[in-house]
């Protein structure tokens, strides 16, 4: 991840020869070292963000934590839920969950996922820097690899997507090398790497393979060589089609209308034109305050007089991002936020198109270029300093918000301390938003920490959905919890089989409606209430 020295700054004109010999080496060393040190420190700061909140406000992370612990208990034959769920190894989430599993034997599940996300972030930046070096790109643009990991996908807690992101960049790198000089050995490597990427995340797999195919079509001539060079991608396409058919055949929600879950939604409107640059920084319009920084990042290579790489195939990843941005639906096959999450690739794809201009790599040879050279140097340094400052402002803002959420969500600790392990619970989240983190859905799945930390089972559960590594056994899926996620007020004791739940985790501003748990079977008592969190327990069933 070390950022190479920025050689774009020329020596000051007008320094006499004697002092120049003494001062230029020192200035050169400072210019070389300072950006590199700042870059490394900033990336380390980014890695620390995952650790600020004990239970981070990343929406889906508690569900992923619950999946990992279900997997661990099922493998150890200690799960009280073996009659309810089963392991599903044919999943594109296999690698993300499989890598987290060993960490759970060394540390709590929350720390295990944070370790994986931290390593994924470091790997993402490292692979982007490595690919940029391979393309002989401008090292100053490495800063565009830093912030996007903490945008839309981070806030929504798309754990497996984030873990797959660096592997997707690595696969793109490998396919570029393959398309440049094809060989049987490289083709086999593409097939193996592509298969591994499929079991990391299906969407990243499709995105990276589309770019790989684009590289081949762009670089290989004539047509017959294009067809031959596409051979490694054919089995990967068959794998994708086979999985799509299998998932359709095993989807328990196929053909059902579930309130709050769209089957398909195009989601194209005027706001989409600026959506992806906003999603680099967050999940909603509040992140639009960083649009000037995005504009500066996009302008930087032109202000530095960089040039598009002589290998024009480098534009393929950016074209793929643009295709996703403007043409991919927001929801398809009941999978939401399809195009939004790809904001993580926007800035890297753009940065990887450019090479530093010859003047920026010629060192002190332009020391006598006069006023224009000095003005160019000042502009270049100023732009880089502004980008660095913008990244630090963004990380500082994330730090404050994460710390405030940790305080805001502290009452959940007290609720969890009042529960016994290994019980079934129902999550009733009336108010999903977090004012502290400025997220509209931070509390949506926080109840799942009971499952992750105390071996319970909480509905709504991701075991409902096809891609998960632990799924409900046939006929065991609850009828209503997917609907209750979006409309908890529709809960009815008999219809929703309230008797099967010992605990009810409620997050609501204000009290529950009178007789909310009214029934003729069991008593339901309030165990503890802290701030907006309440824990109810089923007792004395008749």
Give me some keywords for this one.
disordered N terminus; globular; single chain; five-stranded mixed sheet; 11 strands; 542 residues
Word description of this protein:
It is a single chain. The protein has 542 residues and is α+β, with helices and mostly antiparallel strands. It folds into 2 domains: 51-356 and 377-402, no CATH class; 412-541. Helix content is 48%, strand content 8%. The strands form 4 sheets. The protein has a 5-stranded mixed sheet. The radius of gyration is 26 Å and the shape is globular. The termini are far apart. This is Glycosyltransferase RgtA/B/C/D-like domain-containing protein. The chain crosses the membrane at residues 33-53, 105-131, 143-176, 188-218, 227-246, 287-304, 313-332, 338-356, 377-395. It comes from Paraburkholderia fungorum. Keywords: Membrane, Transmembrane, Transmembrane helix.
Summarize the structure.
By secondary structure, the protein is α+β, with helices and mostly antiparallel strands. It contains 18 helices and eleven strands.
List the helices and strands and how they pair.
Blueprint: H1 17-48, H2 61-75, E1 85-87, H3 94-103, H4 109-134, H5 152-156, H6 159-180, H7 184-198, H8 202-219, H9 223-229, H10 233-250, E2 264-265, H11 275-279, H12 291-303, E3 307-308, H13 316-327, E4 331-332, H14 346-351, E5 354-355, H15 371-408, H16 411-417, E6 424-429, H17 449-454, E7 457-459, E8 470-472, H18 481-486, E9 503-507, E10 523-530, E11 533-539
Helix pairs in contact: 1-4, 1-15, 2-3, 3-4, 4-6, 6-7, 6-8, 7-10, 12-15
């Amino acid at each position: 991840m070390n950022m190479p020295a920025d050689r774009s700054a020329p020596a000051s004109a007008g320094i006499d020869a004697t002092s120049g010999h003494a001062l230029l080496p020192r200035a050169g060393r400072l210019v070389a070292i300072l950006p590199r040190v700042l870059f490394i420190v900033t990336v380390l700061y980014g890695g620390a963000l995952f650790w600020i909140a004990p239970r981070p406000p990343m929406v889906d992370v508690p569900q992923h934590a619950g999946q990992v612990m279900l997997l661990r208990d099922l493998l150890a034959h200690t799960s009280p839920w073996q009659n309810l769920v089963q392991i599903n190894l044919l999943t594109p989430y296999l690698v993300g969950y499989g890598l987290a599993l060993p960490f759970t034997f060394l540390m709590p599940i929350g720390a295990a996922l944070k370790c994986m996300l931290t390593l994924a972030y470091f790997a993402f930046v490292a692979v982007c820097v490595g690919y940029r070096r391979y393309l002989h790109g401008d090292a100053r643009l490495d800063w565009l690899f830093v912030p996007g990991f903490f945008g839309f996908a981070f806030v929504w807690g798309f754990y497996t997507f984030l873990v797959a992101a660096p592997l997707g960049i690595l696969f793109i790198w490998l396919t570029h090398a393959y398309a440049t000089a094809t060989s049987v050995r490289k083709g086999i490597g593409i097939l193996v790497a592509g298969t591994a990427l499929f079991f990391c995340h299906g969407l990243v797999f499709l995105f990276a393979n589309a770019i790989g195919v684009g590289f081949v079509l762009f670089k290989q001539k004539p047509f017959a060589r294009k067809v031959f060079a596409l051979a490694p991608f054919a089995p990967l396409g068959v794998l994708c089609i086979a999985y799509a058919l299998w998932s359709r055949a095993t989807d328990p929600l196929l053909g059902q209308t579930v309130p709050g879950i769209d089957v398909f939604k195009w989601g194209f409107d005027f706001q989409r034109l600026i959506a992806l640059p906003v999603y680099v920084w967050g999940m909603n319009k509040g992140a639009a305050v960083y649009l000037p920084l995005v504009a500066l990042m996009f302008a930087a290579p032109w202000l530095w007089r960089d040039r598009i790489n002589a290998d024009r195939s480098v534009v393929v990843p950016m074209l793929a991002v643009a295709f996703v941005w403007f043409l991919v639906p927001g929801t398809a096959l009941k999978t939401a936020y399809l195009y939004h999450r790809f904001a993580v690739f926007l800035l890297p794809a753009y940065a990887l198109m450019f090479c530093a201009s010859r003047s920026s790599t010629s060192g002190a040879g332009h020391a006598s270029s006069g006023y224009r050279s000095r003005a160019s140097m000042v502009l270049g340094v100023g732009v880089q300093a502004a980008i660095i400052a913008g990244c630090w402002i963004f990380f500082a803002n994330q730090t404050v918000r994460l710390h405030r959420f940790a305080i805001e969500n502290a009452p959940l600790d007290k609720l969890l301390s009042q529960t016994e392990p290994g019980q079934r619970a129902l999550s009733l989240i009336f108010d999903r938003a977090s004012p502290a983190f400025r997220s509209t859905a931070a509390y949506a799945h926080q109840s799942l920490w009971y499952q992750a930390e105390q071996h319970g089972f909480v509905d709504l559960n991701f075991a409902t959905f096809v891609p998960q590594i632990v799924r409900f056994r046939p006929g065991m899926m609850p009828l209503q919890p997917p609907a209750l996620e979006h409309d908890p007020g529709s809960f009815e004791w008999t219809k929703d089989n309230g008797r099967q739940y010992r605990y009810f985790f409620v997050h609501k501003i204000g009290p529950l409606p009178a007789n909310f748990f009214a029934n003729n079977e069991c008593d339901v008592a309030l165990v503890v209430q802290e701030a907006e969190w309440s824990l109810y327990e089923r007792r004395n069933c008749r």
